[in-house]
Amino acid sequence: MEAKSSKQFRRKKISLQFLMMVSLLWLMPACSNDVFFEEFRKTDGETWHMNELKEFPVYINDTAATYRLIFTIRNTSDYEYSNLYIFFTSIAPGQMVTRDTIECMLADRYGRWLGKGFGKIRENRFLIKDNLFFPETGEYLFTLEQAMRNESLKGIADVGLRLEKTGSTQ
Protein backbone atom coordinates (compact mmCIF):
# COMPACT_ATOMS: atom_id res chain seq x y z
CA MET A 1 0.00 0.00 0.00
CA GLU A 2 2.83 2.36 0.91
CA ALA A 3 4.64 1.69 -2.41
CA LYS A 4 1.48 2.58 -4.33
CA SER A 5 1.08 5.96 -2.58
CA SER A 6 4.78 6.64 -3.12
CA LYS A 7 4.33 6.03 -6.86
CA GLN A 8 1.29 8.31 -6.93
CA PHE A 9 3.24 11.02 -5.12
CA ARG A 10 6.12 10.72 -7.63
CA ARG A 11 3.69 10.93 -10.57
CA LYS A 12 2.03 14.01 -9.13
CA LYS A 13 5.43 15.59 -8.52
CA ILE A 14 6.55 14.87 -12.10
CA SER A 15 3.25 16.20 -13.45
CA LEU A 16 3.61 19.36 -11.39
CA GLN A 17 7.21 19.85 -12.55
CA PHE A 18 6.14 19.36 -16.17
CA LEU A 19 3.31 21.87 -15.76
CA MET A 20 5.69 24.42 -14.21
CA MET A 21 8.19 23.95 -17.05
CA VAL A 22 5.51 24.42 -19.72
CA SER A 23 4.22 27.52 -17.91
CA LEU A 24 7.72 28.96 -17.74
CA LEU A 25 8.30 28.37 -21.44
CA TRP A 26 4.94 29.97 -22.23
CA LEU A 27 5.79 33.08 -20.18
CA MET A 28 9.35 33.55 -21.47
CA PRO A 29 8.44 35.33 -24.74
CA ALA A 30 6.42 37.86 -22.75
CA CYS A 31 9.57 38.85 -20.85
CA SER A 32 11.58 39.88 -23.87
CA ASN A 33 14.02 42.77 -23.48
CA ASP A 34 13.10 44.48 -26.74
CA VAL A 35 9.96 46.14 -25.36
CA PHE A 36 10.77 49.85 -25.17
CA PHE A 37 7.31 51.07 -24.21
CA GLU A 38 3.99 49.41 -23.42
CA GLU A 39 0.97 50.96 -21.74
CA PHE A 40 -2.77 50.37 -21.66
CA ARG A 41 -5.68 52.74 -21.17
CA LYS A 42 -8.91 51.39 -19.69
CA THR A 43 -12.24 52.34 -21.13
CA ASP A 44 -15.11 53.52 -18.97
CA GLY A 45 -17.24 50.50 -18.13
CA GLU A 46 -15.72 48.44 -20.96
CA THR A 47 -17.20 50.92 -23.45
CA TRP A 48 -15.12 53.02 -25.85
CA HIS A 49 -16.95 56.23 -26.70
CA MET A 50 -16.57 58.11 -29.97
CA ASN A 51 -14.14 61.06 -29.72
CA GLU A 52 -12.59 59.51 -26.58
CA LEU A 53 -8.89 59.72 -27.34
CA LYS A 54 -6.47 57.27 -25.80
CA GLU A 55 -3.17 59.16 -25.60
CA PHE A 56 0.31 57.69 -25.26
CA PRO A 57 3.18 60.15 -24.84
CA VAL A 58 6.54 58.46 -25.51
CA TYR A 59 9.95 60.07 -25.04
CA ILE A 60 12.42 58.96 -27.72
CA ASN A 61 16.12 59.49 -27.03
CA ASP A 62 17.69 57.05 -29.52
CA THR A 63 17.41 58.21 -33.12
CA ALA A 64 19.67 55.39 -34.36
CA ALA A 65 17.26 52.64 -33.27
CA THR A 66 14.50 51.07 -35.34
CA TYR A 67 11.18 50.18 -33.78
CA ARG A 68 8.04 48.14 -34.29
CA LEU A 69 4.82 49.97 -33.37
CA ILE A 70 1.93 47.76 -32.23
CA PHE A 71 -1.67 48.53 -31.25
CA THR A 72 -3.25 46.20 -28.68
CA ILE A 73 -6.95 45.81 -28.03
CA ARG A 74 -8.64 43.83 -25.26
CA ASN A 75 -12.24 43.09 -26.06
CA THR A 76 -14.89 41.11 -24.26
CA SER A 77 -17.41 38.69 -25.70
CA ASP A 78 -19.95 41.54 -25.40
CA TYR A 79 -18.39 43.29 -28.41
CA GLU A 80 -20.96 43.18 -31.21
CA TYR A 81 -18.73 43.31 -34.28
CA SER A 82 -16.03 41.20 -35.89
CA ASN A 83 -13.83 44.20 -36.65
CA LEU A 84 -12.82 47.57 -35.27
CA TYR A 85 -11.71 50.68 -37.13
CA ILE A 86 -9.41 53.10 -35.36
CA PHE A 87 -7.90 56.48 -36.17
CA PHE A 88 -4.19 56.43 -35.35
CA THR A 89 -2.48 59.81 -35.01
CA SER A 90 1.15 60.59 -34.24
CA ILE A 91 2.53 64.00 -33.40
CA ALA A 92 6.31 64.47 -33.58
CA PRO A 93 8.24 66.95 -31.39
CA GLY A 94 8.33 69.42 -34.30
CA GLN A 95 4.50 69.18 -34.43
CA MET A 96 4.41 67.15 -37.66
CA VAL A 97 1.12 65.23 -37.60
CA THR A 98 0.34 61.97 -39.39
CA ARG A 99 -3.04 60.25 -39.26
CA ASP A 100 -4.16 56.88 -40.56
CA THR A 101 -7.22 54.66 -40.40
CA ILE A 102 -6.62 51.05 -39.41
CA GLU A 103 -9.00 48.09 -39.56
CA CYS A 104 -8.54 45.45 -36.88
CA MET A 105 -10.16 42.03 -37.30
CA LEU A 106 -11.26 40.67 -33.91
CA ALA A 107 -13.25 37.62 -35.07
CA ASP A 108 -13.12 35.28 -38.05
CA ARG A 109 -15.92 34.95 -40.59
CA TYR A 110 -17.63 32.34 -38.40
CA GLY A 111 -17.74 34.69 -35.42
CA ARG A 112 -14.95 32.98 -33.46
CA TRP A 113 -12.84 35.44 -31.50
CA LEU A 114 -9.23 35.84 -32.60
CA GLY A 115 -6.27 36.64 -30.39
CA LYS A 116 -5.10 35.31 -27.07
CA GLY A 117 -7.05 34.74 -23.92
CA PHE A 118 -9.82 32.63 -22.56
CA GLY A 119 -13.08 33.30 -20.89
CA LYS A 120 -14.64 36.67 -21.53
CA ILE A 121 -11.56 38.74 -22.55
CA ARG A 122 -9.45 38.39 -25.71
CA GLU A 123 -6.28 40.32 -26.56
CA ASN A 124 -5.24 41.12 -30.13
CA ARG A 125 -2.12 42.88 -31.36
CA PHE A 126 -1.96 44.72 -34.67
CA LEU A 127 1.21 45.90 -36.35
CA ILE A 128 0.96 49.59 -37.19
CA LYS A 129 4.48 50.15 -38.49
CA ASP A 130 7.66 48.07 -38.74
CA ASN A 131 11.23 49.37 -39.18
CA LEU A 132 10.11 52.72 -37.83
CA PHE A 133 12.76 55.25 -36.91
CA PHE A 134 12.40 58.60 -35.21
CA PRO A 135 14.42 61.41 -36.83
CA GLU A 136 14.68 63.53 -33.69
CA THR A 137 14.70 63.08 -29.94
CA GLY A 138 11.84 64.32 -27.83
CA GLU A 139 8.30 63.49 -26.88
CA TYR A 140 6.10 61.88 -29.50
CA LEU A 141 2.38 61.71 -28.87
CA PHE A 142 0.39 58.77 -30.24
CA THR A 143 -3.39 58.83 -30.05
CA LEU A 144 -5.95 56.13 -30.75
CA GLU A 145 -9.61 56.86 -31.38
CA GLN A 146 -12.40 54.46 -32.28
CA ALA A 147 -13.65 55.13 -35.80
CA MET A 148 -16.79 53.02 -35.91
CA ARG A 149 -20.20 54.52 -36.71
CA ASN A 150 -21.54 53.86 -33.21
CA GLU A 151 -21.33 56.52 -30.53
CA SER A 152 -20.31 53.88 -27.95
CA LEU A 153 -18.63 50.52 -28.45
CA LYS A 154 -19.60 48.14 -25.67
CA GLY A 155 -17.11 45.33 -25.10
CA ILE A 156 -13.82 47.21 -25.49
CA ALA A 157 -12.00 46.87 -22.16
CA ASP A 158 -8.49 48.22 -22.80
CA VAL A 159 -6.56 49.95 -25.55
CA GLY A 160 -2.78 49.68 -25.62
CA LEU A 161 0.29 50.78 -27.48
CA ARG A 162 3.57 48.88 -27.63
CA LEU A 163 6.89 50.01 -29.06
CA GLU A 164 9.63 47.40 -29.53
CA LYS A 165 13.25 48.13 -30.38
CA THR A 166 14.16 45.99 -33.36
CA GLY A 167 17.62 47.14 -34.33
CA SER A 168 19.66 50.10 -35.45
CA THR A 169 19.71 52.29 -38.55
CA GLN A 170 23.51 52.50 -38.36
Structure in words:
The protein has 170 residues and is of the alpha+beta class. It folds into 2 domains: 1-31; 33-168, Sandwich (Jelly Rolls), CATH 2.60.120.380. It is 15% helix and 50% strand. The strands form 3 sheets. Strands 1-10-4-7 form a 4-stranded antiparallel beta sheet, with no helix packed on it. Strand 5 and strand 6 (97-105) form a beta hairpin. The longest helix has 26 residues, at 2-27.
Short description:
It contains one helix and ten strands.
What's the arrangement of secondary structure elements?
Elements: H1 2-27, E1 35-42, E2 47-49, E3 54-60, E4 65-76, E5 83-91, E6 97-105, E7 121-132, E8 138-146, E9 152-154, E10 156-168
Reported by name, the CATH topology of the largest domain is Jelly Rolls
Spans of at least 5 consecutive residues with low confidence: none
The order of strands across the largest sheet is: 1-10-4-7
Number of domains: 2
CATH architecture of the largest domain: Sandwich
Helix and strand sequence: HEEEEEEEEEE
Largest sheet: 4 strands, antiparallel
The overall pLDDT, averaged over residues, is: 88
